[in-house]
């Protein structure tokens, strides 16, 4: 702290900002009061460091106050009579325009808003001093509008007609919160416009936005040049690697990079800046340019490179560090890179405190600080390696070690092959592909033919790289899924790793000094201070060494226990859970038994009615509820495998999301309703089951599953199955054949009904007409509350205390039907709906059910 006051102050600033973000308002100031008293006590005991302690304390409080000040001002100045109000906006486009399929998206800084109040024919106009940013989505009406959308750019003044809506919050526990994401960009409204004709373009403004628009144009031209030098998917990959354009990355190739922890290669960061600066300075030195002049040229290059590569937080961090480092190097003042990093962090957080919650910012600074701190501690363990390999191995291991906690916080997965992939591929990409690709781009700007010659070996290396990533990604059993850990878990991991390596280095240094002391009489030993070699001294050293070994062993055991706790699911043993996940218009429920078994019932699915002539509307990576909602939630909850997946029937809104589930998790068994749907989705699911040797069972009345001693699943419908049959029939109308089952768990009962219709209800009631179903605790209402099921007789038979309707908000089917809702309310049944309350979770313990929902109850 005394040797690096700037670093200590930066740590205090980061801690204060983080505490204010997590505990806003009076809770932060209460914590600050407690910290003040703690600092005063430490200062009285630890007098030599009181000045540094006061600086850190002041930085903590100032940072918290600075964050709260920004939060107070981060609110909209627009008040609307209703959500979805039709408005006319005037303002300037202040972000790059992204055209993807039939959607053009950008950020508009509105300076004036006009709205038409209900019952009036007069526009009410409001000026917005200083402007307010809004996220705009323009739904293109026809393919002819694509060139028009492509002509929009930053700095363009526009008038836009559309509807103003509040961004949606997260609808599932732990899911991505779009409203929070926009809030951190100081955006509070989403504007949706029907067609490019809703936007009227005006003149281009002068200023920063217009200048950035020119940069966007230059980046687009560079991207077009890359497309001429590299074929197909390689062009998208090289755009990301060279200039930070990731719009055209092949989704499958990007997924392979993500699985192996290689996405940092595509995020322009310190290695990219360092390689390009080294190339420039090396070239200038070869041209006999003086060292000072070469540094000046490099200083001028870095800001231009930051602009061309997109000005992301990682680019800003690496660029500012490089510029500050080059300046200090020229002045002969570069002594401590950790202080340089601290200075850059302070500058960025003062400029925009919300950078702190940016994933790119966190990973960039954490990895850079980790390399500075941990690499010297780790290098002694690799003395047995050649000197040229030693540093590369230590850097790779440290980067993986430091990025691991943040990776599982945000992505909830880590491949055990990640270290191997980084050791093999990063040196090739960093030392060959990046420099040669940059050279090909520069030469290609002058002559495409010459650039293509230089690009030829890069193409070969790219092909070899992705063949390697494809082979590594195909190795099953190496991907691990982790629940999102707490801040305390992350802090404990970093502290434990540091102390383990630090005490290891001290242990090794003492051992080396003891060895030198034994050779003290040797004339060839270099001059050094006299070492006490008395028996008592050796005894003290041995005792100290044993204590250090015991401490290191304790730390290692603690880290192992920490990893075990982090790898365990979020569910408590001895408690059952039923989680009705909000997948929009569809069904998906996760059953977790008290013993920790996981059963997934359906997986939602995105239904598309798009015709072949509208293929141009398809986006590069269309939204798919399984890959974007179900799989991320299962990972975030620490689920590693599924003991069973039940396909109640073959409709797309029930099975569409299961392909991503089967591709991501080991599945022990599939249960189907004894028939197949004539769809590509069903065919793909069955092919995947065969390929992965997943047993497929036909469910029918009388089948029982017992995952543990307090959980029993009894199939009630279909009445007959096809188990053992040589041929499974194809059935077009799947609803009638839905799997219906009763779940009894630790004294509580649940009924799952799929999309069964009233005819199936009558069949079951006719079969059991002489008996009473008895009351059940929870019924999953069939077919999203459609009027074709959930008859009065059905409700009278089961007498549920609670009902759950899984249905999409503002769906086009009119679900749930008012008749069904009135029928449920008429029997005083507690009703939960995913369209109004988002995900609904039920926790079962000893017959008692505790319910919580993600969104507050709305009328």
Automatic annotation (TrEMBL):
<feature type="transmembrane region" description="Helical">
    <location>
        <begin position="53"/>
        <end position="69"/>
    </location>
</feature>
<feature type="transmembrane region" description="Helical">
    <location>
        <begin position="391"/>
        <end position="411"/>
    </location>
</feature>
<dbReference type="InterPro" id="IPR004797">
    <property type="entry name" value="Competence_ComEC/Rec2"/>
</dbReference>
<feature type="transmembrane region" description="Helical">
    <location>
        <begin position="423"/>
        <end position="446"/>
    </location>
</feature>
<dbReference type="InterPro" id="IPR001279">
    <property type="entry name" value="Metallo-B-lactamas"/>
</dbReference>
<dbReference type="InterPro" id="IPR035681">
    <property type="entry name" value="ComA-like_MBL"/>
</dbReference>
<feature type="transmembrane region" description="Helical">
    <location>
        <begin position="337"/>
        <end position="355"/>
    </location>
</feature>
<feature type="domain" description="Metallo-beta-lactamase">
    <location>
        <begin position="585"/>
        <end position="809"/>
    </location>
</feature>
<keyword id="KW-1133">Transmembrane helix</keyword>
<feature type="transmembrane region" description="Helical">
    <location>
        <begin position="294"/>
        <end position="316"/>
    </location>
</feature>
<feature type="transmembrane region" description="Helical">
    <location>
        <begin position="361"/>
        <end position="379"/>
    </location>
</feature>
<feature type="transmembrane region" description="Helical">
    <location>
        <begin position="30"/>
        <end position="46"/>
    </location>
</feature>
<dbReference type="Pfam" id="PF03772">
    <property type="entry name" value="Competence"/>
</dbReference>
<dbReference type="GO" id="GO:0030420">
    <property type="term" value="P:establishment of competence for transformation"/>
</dbReference>
<comment type="function">
    <text>Counteracts the endogenous Pycsar antiviral defense system. Phosphodiesterase that enables metal-dependent hydrolysis of host cyclic nucleotide Pycsar defense signals such as cCMP and cUMP.</text>
</comment>
<feature type="transmembrane region" description="Helical">
    <location>
        <begin position="550"/>
        <end position="570"/>
    </location>
</feature>
<dbReference type="InterPro" id="IPR025405">
    <property type="entry name" value="DUF4131"/>
</dbReference>
<dbReference type="Pfam" id="PF13567">
    <property type="entry name" value="DUF4131"/>
</dbReference>
<dbReference type="InterPro" id="IPR004477">
    <property type="entry name" value="ComEC_N"/>
</dbReference>
<keyword id="KW-1003">Cell membrane</keyword>
<dbReference type="InterPro" id="IPR052159">
    <property type="entry name" value="Competence_DNA_uptake"/>
</dbReference>
<dbReference type="InterPro" id="IPR036866">
    <property type="entry name" value="RibonucZ/Hydroxyglut_hydro"/>
</dbReference>
<dbReference type="Pfam" id="PF00753">
    <property type="entry name" value="Lactamase_B"/>
</dbReference>
<feature type="transmembrane region" description="Helical">
    <location>
        <begin position="486"/>
        <end position="503"/>
    </location>
</feature>
<keyword id="KW-0472">Membrane</keyword>
<keyword id="KW-0812">Transmembrane</keyword>
<feature type="transmembrane region" description="Helical">
    <location>
        <begin position="453"/>
        <end position="474"/>
    </location>
</feature>
<protein>
    <submittedName>
        <fullName>DNA internalization-related competence protein ComEC/Rec2</fullName>
    </submittedName>
</protein>
<dbReference type="GO" id="GO:0005886">
    <property type="term" value="C:plasma membrane"/>
</dbReference>
């Amino acid at each position: 702290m005394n040797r690096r006051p700037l670093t200590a102050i930066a740590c205090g600033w980061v801690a204060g900002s983080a505490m204010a973000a997590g505990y806003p308002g009076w809770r932060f100031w209460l914590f600050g009061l407690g910290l003040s008293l703690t600092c005063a006590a430490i200062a009285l005991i630890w007098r030599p460091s009181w000045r540094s302690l006061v600086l850190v304390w002041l930085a903590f409080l100032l940072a918290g106050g600075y964050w709260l000040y920004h939060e107070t001002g981060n609110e909209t100045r627009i008040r609307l009579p209703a959500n979805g109000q039709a408005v006319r906006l005037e303002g300037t486009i202040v972000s790059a325009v992204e055209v993807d399929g039939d959607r053009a998206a950008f950020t508009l800084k509105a300076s004036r808003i006009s709205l038409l109040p209900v019952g009036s024919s007069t526009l009410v106009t409001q000026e917005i001093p200083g402007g307010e940013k809004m996220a705009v989505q323009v739904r293109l009406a026809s393919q002819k509008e694509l060139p028009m959308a492509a002509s929009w750019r930053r700095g363009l003044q526009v008038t836009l007609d559309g509807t103003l809506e509040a961004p949606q919050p997260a609808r599932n526990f732990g899911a991505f919160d779009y409203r929070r994401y926009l809030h951190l960009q100081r955006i509070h409204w989403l504007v949706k416009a029907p067609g490019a004709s809703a936007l009227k373009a005006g003149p281009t403004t002068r200023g920063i936005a217009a200048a950035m628009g020119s940069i966007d144009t230059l980046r687009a031209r560079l991207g077009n040049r890359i497309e001429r030098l590299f074929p197909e998917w390689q062009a998208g990959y090289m755009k990301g690697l060279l200039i930070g354009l990731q719009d055209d990355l092949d989704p499958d190739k990007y997924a392979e990079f993500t699985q192996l922890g290689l996405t940092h290669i595509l995020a322009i960061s310190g290695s990219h800046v360092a390689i390009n600066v080294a190339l420039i300075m090396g070239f200038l030195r070869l041209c006999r340019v003086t060292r000072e002049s070469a540094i000046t040229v490099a200083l001028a290059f870095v800001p231009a490179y930051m602009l061309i590569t997109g000005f992301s937080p990682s680019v800003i961090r690496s660029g500012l560090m490089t510029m500050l480092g080059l300046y200090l190097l020229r002045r002969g003042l570069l002594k401590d890179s950790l202080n340089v990093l601290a200075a850059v962090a302070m500058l960025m957080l003062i400029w925009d405190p919300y950078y702190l919650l940016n994933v790119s910012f966190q990973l960039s600074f954490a990895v850079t600080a980790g390399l500075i701190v941990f690499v010297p501690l780790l290098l002694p363990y690799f003395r047995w390696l050649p000197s040229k390999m030693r540093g590369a191995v230590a850097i790779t291991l440290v980067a993986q070690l430091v990025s691991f906690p943040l990776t599982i916080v945000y992505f909830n997965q880590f491949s055990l092959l990640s270290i191997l992939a980084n050791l093999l591929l990063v040196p090739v990409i960093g030392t060959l592909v990046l420099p040669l690709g940059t050279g090909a781009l520069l030469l290609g700007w002058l002559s495409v033919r010459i650039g293509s010659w230089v690009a030829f070996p890069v193409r070969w290396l790219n092909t070899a790289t992705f063949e390697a990533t494809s082979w590594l990604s195909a190795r099953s059993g190496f991907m691990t899924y982790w629940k999102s850990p707490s801040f305390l878990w992350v802090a404990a991991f970093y502290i434990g790793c540091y102390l383990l390596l630090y005490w290891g280095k001290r242990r090794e240094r003492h051992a080396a000094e003891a060895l030198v002391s034994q050779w003290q009489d040797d004339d060839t030993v270099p001059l050094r201070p006299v070492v006490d070699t008395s028996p008592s001294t050796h005894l003290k050293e041995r005792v100290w060494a044993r204590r250090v070994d015991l401490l290191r062993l304790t730390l290692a055991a603690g880290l192992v226990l920490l990893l075990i706790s982090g790898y365990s699911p979020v569910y408590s043993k001895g408690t059952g859970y039923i989680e009705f996940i909000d997948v929009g218009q569809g069904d998906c429920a996760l059953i977790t038994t008290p013993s920790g078994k996981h059963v997934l019932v359906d997986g939602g699915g995105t239904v598309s009615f798009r015709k072949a002539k509208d293929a141009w509307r398809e986006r590069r990576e269309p939204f798919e509820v399984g890959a974007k909602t179900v799989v991320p939630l299962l990972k975030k909850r620490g689920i590693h495998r599924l003991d069973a997946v039940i396909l109640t029937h073959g409709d797309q809104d029930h099975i569409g999301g299961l392909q991503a589930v089967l591709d991501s998790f080991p599945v022990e068994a599939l249960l189907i309703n004894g028939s197949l749907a004539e769809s590509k989705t069903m065919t793909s699911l069955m092919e995947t089951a065969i390929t992965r040797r997943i047993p497929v069972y036909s469910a029918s009345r009388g089948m029982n599953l017992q995952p543990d001693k307090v959980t029993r699943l009894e199939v009630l419908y279909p009445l007959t199955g096809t188990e053992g049959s040589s041929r499974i029939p194809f059935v077009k109308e799947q609803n009638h054949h839905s799997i219906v089952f009763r779940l009894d768990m630790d004294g509580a009962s649940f009924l799952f009904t799929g999309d069964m219709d009233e005819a199936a209800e009558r069949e079951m009631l006719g079969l059991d007409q002489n008996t009473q179903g008895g009351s059940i605790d929870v019924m999953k209402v069939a077919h999203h509350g459609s009027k074709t099921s959930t008859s009065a007789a059905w409700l009278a038979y089961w007498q549920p205390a609670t009902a759950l309707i899984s249905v999409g908000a503002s769906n086009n089917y009119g679900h749930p039907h008012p008749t069904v809702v009135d029928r449920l309310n008429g029997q005083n049944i507690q009703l939960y709906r995913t369209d109004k309350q988002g995900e609904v979770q039920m926790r079962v313990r000893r017959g008692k059910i505790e319910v919580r929902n993600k969104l507050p109850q709305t009328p």
